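Bug #77: duplicate submission created two jobs. Keeping one. Sequence:
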Amino acid sequence: MQPLLSRRTMLKLTSGTALGLACQGGTWAAIPHATMRTRPIPSSNEPVPVVGLGTWIQFDVGTSDAERQPLREVLQRMVEQGGTLIDSSPMYGRAEQVIGELTQETKLSEKFFYATKVWTQGQRAGIEQMQESMRKMKRPRIDLMQVHNLIDWQTHLKTLTQWKAEGKIRYTGVTHYSTSANAQLEQIVKAKGVDFVQFKYSIGVRDAEKSLLKAAQDHGVAVLINEPFESGSLFQKVKNKPLPAWASDYGIQSWGQFFLKYILAHPAVTCVIPGTSNPKHVVDNLGAGYGAMPDEAGRKKMVAHFEAL
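Kept job's structure:
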């Protein structure tokens, strides 16, 4: 989602530059450093880098070079910094098509873990939509297919289970954008019917901490987190506020990394998927996957500081 406050402004207001960024000849590039953290997908033990990319709004663009060049750079920066997971949906306009075309244009198509969704009613309509998503993303198989916002989820999960057995997809999942669905997501997680669950969670909206995160961890379901910045409202709250001095203990050099590391410090979280179309911002986001993570005491300290602002 689009931020309410310019991310560029926020980077200037905090530490001046983001972790892992350097200006070289007027362009921004990644400073080499250690490998990004990974977390295993419980159902397979396959490692996944902990910071990925959401594509809602940002990748719903036309065909002009002015619109697409920043997105090419975002994908290139992801690969350079060790990110792999890209999350999309038929709901996101042209995003799937843009992902497919740009990953091929940049010759990076084999570098990513592709996640998308089924978002319709009925078995036949679901099958046709998923086939269209594969065509748009130019993939012979999708890594993760999720039922978007639990639309006709029981019908689609039957198809996804069959498709996984047939090798058309690698993992199954369910998603929702609202915390009001957390109880239902938890029931599905406890039934062990999916490999992944995706939901909303941030330092400002912590409903998932009540039981959903623990349920996913206890039942071996991987967790994707959407809306880590609450549509940019978290940046509005910290406008003109400096980072606490102790943030450097965790390698945090921007408010974006502060918000992402709070999420990633929870052991149930597999990957967080902030959306952006800005190459500098994607490097800043990916920087949250490096260095020390807060322990539980550190997470409580982060919440206390945030709520006191």
